[in-house]
Amino acid sequence: QPIFLKNYLPPAFLVQQVHLNFLLDSTQTRVISRLELERNPASTQANLPLELDGQNLKIINLQLNGQCLTEADYQLTEQQLILPQVPDSFVLEIEVEIDPLNNTALEGLYQSSGNFCTQCEAEGFRRITFYPDRPDILSKFTTRIEADKSRFPVLLSNGNLIAQGDLDNGKHFAEWQDPFPKPAYLFALVAGNLHAVKDSFTTCSGRQVALELWVEEQNLHKCEHALRSLKAAMQWDEENYGREYDLDIYMIVAVDDFNMGAMENKGLNVFNSACVLAEPKSETDAAFNRVESVVAHEYFHNWSGNRVTCRDWFQLSLKEGFTVLRDQQFSADMNSAAVERIQQVSMLRTAQFAEDAGPTAHPVRPESYIEINNFYTLTIYEKGAEVVRMLSELLGKETFRKGADLYFARFDGQAVTVDDFVACMAEVSGLDLSQFMLWYSQAGTPEVAASGVYNPTEKTYTLTLKQRTPATPGQPVKQPLLIPIKMGLVGAAGVNIPMEVNGEFWSTERVVQLKEAEQSFTFHHLEAEPVPSLLRGFSAPVKLSFDYSREQLAFLMTNDSDGFNRWDAGQRLALLAIQSLVAQQQAGETLELDPALTSAYEKLLKAPVSDPAILAEMLLLPSEAYLAEQYEQVDIDAIHQASEFARTSLAKALYAEFLRLYQDHHSSADWSPEASAVAARRLKNVCLTWLVATEKPEALQLAEQQFKQANNMTDQLAALTCLAHAKDASVGKEALEAFVKQWSQDALVMDSWFSVQASRPYPDALDKVKTLQAHSAFSMKNPNKVRALISAFVNQNRVNFHAKDASGYQFLADKVIELNQLNPQIASRLVIPLTRFKRMDKVRQNLMKIELERIKQEKLSADLFEVIEKALQ
Ligand code: ARG
Ligand code: ZN
């Protein structure tokens, strides 16, 4: 039952207007819709039947132009309502009944903490009423909501409030009208006992926009940061993309039960509370950063997504990739650009590269899917953003902006494709981007092997770049891509040498376009062998290899003018050192850490601190997940042993330096949101982690002290993690108890409390996780809790998830089976680590497959079916 991109057909009918009337009730909500339909003049076939999507809907009444329809007039399937004979233009009235209270899938209309809310992207609207639920049908929506006034005093939907009032029996109503035609996936409704923090923004043309953030009463003190971020994003989009907001009101609602981060419904965003609420005592700096970026992301969708939307779901990255790039650019402008880039790339290289290497690998524009919810992936979002970023590198900032302007102007109010977007970029730049389109159609992570030869007599340096993309499921053969490689040649003392290639002068930095499978560039007039700095700023989402010596890496670490590449040189050096430890471990030798790494760290620690935020990043070793990515055959245990050995060796060797740095950046001053204060906290807490890695009593004491004295969650949680992750489980006991006592009423903080325990890197973690499932704050129906406890164990506790006794696999399979019933979207995400068995040893491969087979015995949702099927193929 897969759906194919190549089978796309324009819709047979268009919807001019939709009137919705909701009579809200927990288990028996009535939805009465009135659709003004007409045949699509652009439809390619005549006299097609009307097909409306609908799932789990109970039909109460159907009328066509005022005439009641009987069962003889239509066909009803599990998925659709089909009317074979309809006029060319008509009014259809549909009354259905739905059950929001028992909607645990959290798609369509459901209840969260007693309040009603909706999630319609991608195909949730069909769980609310019968409708042509596809993004290329844009219609004007009017929504009337009727509910009990005392329990649901606040009634919200898209657009502007046009009427409200009281009704009999303690009920009231509100009517909202959205002037902008939109696809059904952008519809939203919220009703409940909510409280607003209000603000306003004046747009560049002088219009006043009311801003409202709706939350439960106990969260009113957590709204300020999101509102500040929203205003900053609105201004940023005016200045950087010329995009002005278009309604008189912009509302955000925070809900606790939400499958994803947030949703950009027109004028009424619905947010996972974890992505909108933030207050220093209870949320970390990382949470503040996430709120800023998600608030901006959803706001930016108003243009890249809502005003210009997707023709079909294969084009999902058209809005997501572009919008992620926009939110990344915004975050880079608001914070340290280098640190933002480092964090994005770390995530991409571990998680997205792993996706590309696994059974669910897919192109940025997939060719087919069974369940579209499975395609809200790192590939669509993050790699999609990298693809648009490459366009901006290739075109240059100004031309890229012209292309974006053209795209918004030309396609405003339309549902379009990735080709339309790229065509705008080609048009404004005059570039031929046909080869570039392969980035959208080819899955897998391209590998670029670079090598250099210096010829001292000719004084030339020849750089050779070779590219290949490994096969992915369904795509055995790959073509060479157009890969922009930003580079420079670094000479003695760290100067960027002006480059001259065959009489052409390139200046000191250049974006080289690699188009062939293999290309060479010869640089002239070089007095000595330069050190190439390649893929600066991570200019393309590829794996770049170059046979750097340890000396060259240490040199680039301090001398590269590109901040990202300085960090990456350090990562490469650490990688070499840990990989040789892995080899020693596998050979049964005594472990010995490469002294080059220790001295590079020492140099970092002893140098004057120019940028504490970057230093903090440079002091982090590559994660075990990233290490695993480097191997065709992953030895989970050896990687863990090697990492731990590197960590404790460095910590012991450089204890005094880490302690000094910790003390220098530890302040008892009041919490501040300033970038400098954030950086200091980050650096200090990275140092604390290093100190406790030694397990020295005085280090643990320091953590205890910090835990007790902390006036903010960043410091408190960092200290708690250090204590709870000490080898001796009793070390963290007291702090964990104090923490739960202090925060048991705060759902978001409790998520951290679960995660800290689930990620404890010792074999006792799984039993703890199992026990914690019975905790009163835990619920399998709440996705944040599932992520905090179960995903945290599976994804942040690799050695123990992969325990050789299969206990981790069995546990995960049990949870997936449970969630298959409750929430298919969450189940199908949770199972992914179990599908990544290809690079494991034979024993683990078999154990993992046994659990997948066990899951397969169940009556699976489409979501899980698709993933399991691909994994076992
Ligand atoms: N469009 C939303 C965002 O990226 C995500 C919605 C995902 N929904 C889903 N059911 N997969 O901001
Ligand atoms: Zn998005």
Automatic annotation (TrEMBL):
<dbReference type="InterPro" id="IPR037144">
    <property type="entry name" value="Peptidase_M1_pepN_C_sf"/>
</dbReference>
<dbReference type="GO" id="GO:0004177">
    <property type="term" value="F:aminopeptidase activity"/>
</dbReference>
<dbReference type="InterPro" id="IPR012779">
    <property type="entry name" value="Peptidase_M1_pepN"/>
</dbReference>
<dbReference type="InterPro" id="IPR042097">
    <property type="entry name" value="Aminopeptidase_N-like_N_sf"/>
</dbReference>
<dbReference type="Pfam" id="PF01433">
    <property type="entry name" value="Peptidase_M1"/>
</dbReference>
<dbReference type="Pfam" id="PF17432">
    <property type="entry name" value="DUF3458_C"/>
</dbReference>
<dbReference type="InterPro" id="IPR014782">
    <property type="entry name" value="Peptidase_M1_dom"/>
</dbReference>
<comment type="similarity">
    <text>Belongs to the peptidase M1 family.</text>
</comment>
<keyword id="KW-0862">Zinc</keyword>
<dbReference type="Pfam" id="PF17900">
    <property type="entry name" value="Peptidase_M1_N"/>
</dbReference>
<dbReference type="InterPro" id="IPR035414">
    <property type="entry name" value="Peptidase_M1_pepN_Ig-like"/>
</dbReference>
<dbReference type="InterPro" id="IPR038438">
    <property type="entry name" value="PepN_Ig-like_sf"/>
</dbReference>
<feature type="domain" description="Peptidase M1 membrane alanine aminopeptidase">
    <location>
        <begin position="226"/>
        <end position="437"/>
    </location>
</feature>
<keyword id="KW-0645">Protease</keyword>
<keyword id="KW-0378">Hydrolase</keyword>
<keyword id="KW-0031">Aminopeptidase</keyword>
<dbReference type="Pfam" id="PF11940">
    <property type="entry name" value="DUF3458"/>
</dbReference>
<feature type="domain" description="Peptidase M1 alanyl aminopeptidase Ig-like fold">
    <location>
        <begin position="444"/>
        <end position="546"/>
    </location>
</feature>
<keyword id="KW-0482">Metalloprotease</keyword>
<dbReference type="InterPro" id="IPR024601">
    <property type="entry name" value="Peptidase_M1_pepN_C"/>
</dbReference>
<protein>
    <recommendedName>
        <fullName>Aminopeptidase N</fullName>
        <ecNumber>3.4.11.2</ecNumber>
    </recommendedName>
</protein>
<dbReference type="InterPro" id="IPR045357">
    <property type="entry name" value="Aminopeptidase_N-like_N"/>
</dbReference>
<dbReference type="InterPro" id="IPR001930">
    <property type="entry name" value="Peptidase_M1"/>
</dbReference>
<feature type="domain" description="Peptidase M1 alanyl aminopeptidase C-terminal">
    <location>
        <begin position="551"/>
        <end position="873"/>
    </location>
</feature>
<keyword id="KW-0479">Metal-binding</keyword>
<dbReference type="InterPro" id="IPR027268">
    <property type="entry name" value="Peptidase_M4/M1_CTD_sf"/>
</dbReference>
<feature type="domain" description="Aminopeptidase N-like N-terminal">
    <location>
        <begin position="76"/>
        <end position="186"/>
    </location>
</feature>
